[in-house]
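G.,

No rush on this.
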Amino acid sequence: MTQPTLHPQHTALSLAASGVPVLPLRRGKVPFGNCPACADNACGGRPNMRTPGPCRCPGVCHAWAAATTNPAVIVSPAWASAWQRAVCVGYHPGGAHLTVVDLDDAEAIAWARDALPATQTVPTTRGQHWIYRGAMASRNAVRPGVDIKSTMAYARYLGPGTGTMADLPDTVRTLAAKEPSPVRPATVPVPAGAGGGECPHRTPAYLERGIAMAEQRITEASSAVHATVYRTFLAVLSRHGRCGCLTDAHVARLFTAAQAKGESPRHCADAWTNARTTLGL
């Protein structure tokens, strides 16, 4: 199944008619940023709207919370500029009472085939979306290469896929049932490993090059941004996390790169915490 070739706005109208809330996605396959009136939380909402606020902006600048099934909004002048620049259509799975299990690679797909009931399947750039009937809390990196997108999240529309949609299984709900990580500020202290690991950095340039490469990897991600951010954090921590060389400034640079791709501070903090837990830091 190939990606739809209709103009994104036409695809959006078709999806909206079937009850799926839609929004345009820009280059990088991420939502449009806040408009000037909503910048810096001036509207009372929250940047990228990971949680809804009182904003009533008519534009499309609040990520998943801007998704709509109203055709008048989709064709409105306030959305016109976004559609002209859109590269694809996003949708809010939870708003359509759906859950997307985003499988980012062959290993994740193999796990799903063993662990999950068959359902509607849509090919992605590097993996598959398994779509189930039923909504739940979204959560990233529930397993290596596996994200869950439902409420308060968006997914790319890549076509109808194949197979018959199944009801959301308890197995998927259990994956996201872990206690949520505490909300952390955009800069997270990185303590030295308990064993006081030996520092492998002969010069500051070594660490600087590693951080710059990590920033570039996140910035250049064209899909699976959540997974790319997590894996990049994991790589940085596996190399630099035990010797105490990482500073708040280094972490802030990584978080800034991730947020520029549409990640929220909380998702950055969760990914960082999950990476540290995986490595035993």
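When you get to it, here's the other one too:
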Amino acid sequence: MRRVTVEQSGGPEVLKMQDAPVLAPAAGEVQVRLRYAGLNFIDVYQRQGARQAAEPPAVLGKEGVGTVTALGEGVGGEGVSGLSLGQRVAFGTALSGAYAESVNVPAHMLAVVPDGVSDEQAAAVMLQGMTAHYLAYSAFPLSAGDLAVVHAAAGGVGGLLVQLARRTGATVLATAGSPEKLELARELGAQLTASYDDFAALAREHGGASVVYDGVGSSTFAAGLSALRVRGLMCLYGAASGPVKTVDPQQLNTLGSLYLTRPSLVHYTQNETELRWRAGELFDLIRSGDLQVRVDKVFPLEDIQEAHRYIESRQTLGKVLLSM
């Protein structure tokens, strides 16, 4: 099979194509012949040798969709229910390995993809969609009357989060880096939009935000704290612009007894039941037409370096996929 390996940390040029044997799945694993892999900003962090970086040589990629081609011991039959040869399955919390034509994934990380959901849609929502799901429904369970700031609202997580947040009855204040992206956020349901320079003032004009969903990090964090109402929550789930510097807890007090959380998808998909619940709700919304999944670009596996340069440009308008 073909796969992309990283033998040292660095820029996109360290991503190299190679041939490798297809290994049999271990006990508790499922072998998946991939159709698409999803690209995510955490892949960039790992390639650079930062967050959750694996020891090289490594195969990046936490998200993908494909067909079950082999079952490890204990999977199927009396083992993990609902998995069998030939099924379409998707995953978004694998440690690594999706930049390849075949990958072995722990069975509890897989969700069965139902009819009515395309491979592209499934690959686009397993990491970013389940992230948007836990943000809107678990990290801060939104409801009518809440004002939610959603940063990077035209991106993969942001575009899905805007839609899920609107379904709760909350008011969404969306931010983005261009008029085109702000228009897309409005099309997805955001009632209020603002640039990264102006969102905090607009939030305060409306009484302050109940929650700020911040996947941008360094460049937006301080303003986000000032946008919150008393006892509001800063939900810092990413760092696309760089990591946030040390926070003085007294600042949270001074700004209104604020809360701060730094969540991760893996902690909101703690077991097979929770993961399949989140994925299943997303798939149901896709099938009913109530959730738009925007695939921005699809790159062939051999163009992986170009694909990484594209997501690092922060010009994306939705999900970026790799095709095998």
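The chain has ten helices and 15 strands. The mean pLDDT is 94.

Enjoy the weekend,
O.
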